[in-house]
Design brief:
Length: about 110
């Protein structure tokens, strides 16, 4: 989705929310005074809800970081083992090739 499409979506979402809220307030079965009390209580609860969400997001980010670090360390260990095995196999191949070359040289003399 392009930036323009995202902007249009967010704008439409905001406009729809505003229109829906206004219509909801106009057709609400409560009096204006009751509605204002409810809105005030809701507004007072927003910082606490935001704090709870922030804490949850931070906790999840920490867990994700720990998991990622653990996976990275495991991958790094496997990579080091694979490189060591490759180096060892290369040394063995080189030694085997040198012995074969010496054996052929000795036979041809």
């Amino acid at each position: 989705m392009s930036k323009r499409g995202i902007s249009a979506f967010i704008g439409g979402l905001a406009l729809g929310s505003a229109v829906g809220s206004a219509i909801g307030l106009l057709v609400a079965p409560r009096s204006g005074q009751e509605t204002r009390k409810i809105l005030k209580k809701s507004a007072l609860a927003v910082p606490e809800i935001a704090q709870d969400i922030s804490s949850s997001v931070q906790l999840q980010a920490d867990r994700f970081s720990e998991t990622t670090l653990s996976n990275w360390e495991s991958t790094l260990t496997r990579l080091q083992e694979a490189i060591a095995a490759g180096v060892e196999a290369s040394k063995m191949e080189t030694t085997s090739s040198e012995q074969t070359t010496e054996s052929l040289s000795t036979k041809s003399e």
